[in-house]
Amino acid sequence: MNSRTWILMAASLGIIVLFFMLREHWAHALGVAPYLLLLACPLMHLFHGHGGHGGHDHKDGA
Question: Do the record's keywords include Transmembrane helix (predicted)?
């Protein structure tokens, strides 16, 4: 088998394990959710990229 097959098999196994872990520990996972949301806010501000702010070139457009 080639490496792509191994990667797909490992990813599939990981998704299955994650599903069963969340199914058994759903209350714990939901208890952590607000903290993950709060952590996502500053991470979004740090890593979101600043390419979408058009008009910052300060050239005279006459």
Answer: yes
